[in-house]
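We include the pair:
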Amino acid sequence: MEQTDSLHNIRHSLAHLLAIAVLEKDPSAKLGIGPVIDNGFYYDFEFSNGYTPTPEDLKGFEKAMRKMVNKGLLFEGREVSVDDAKKIFAGQPYKLDLINELEGEGKNLTIYKTGEFEDLCKGGHVENTKEIPADAFTITHTAGAYWRGS
């Protein structure tokens, strides 16, 4: 099923909001990627100190995301050089892995900022979080993942 651009942008924006909510709970979490999928979105995280989110944590992430939706946060994109991206994401090994992979393309990279959160991203977002219906999403589960199959 092909998604409308609007639905895609909402889902992709929600992935960013999930990352913000997770970092509020676990500021040392390592960020992977947060794409849109056929029935929603996900974001890959490596949590610190063996932390595993509980069902209560998932509800807390949702609550935090709804607060962000109601704040009317902006998604602001900008291009940065590979060197600048490496500085911005110095503490994020999975982001650095992606940056190193993209470096060979010889292009600037795009970063999107939402509040104080910045993410390496090609875009496709709402302009303002108030465009997202606050009751239109649920964080349903977690799953294990391996970065690049290892």
User: Anything to note?
Assistant: The chain has one domain: 5-149.
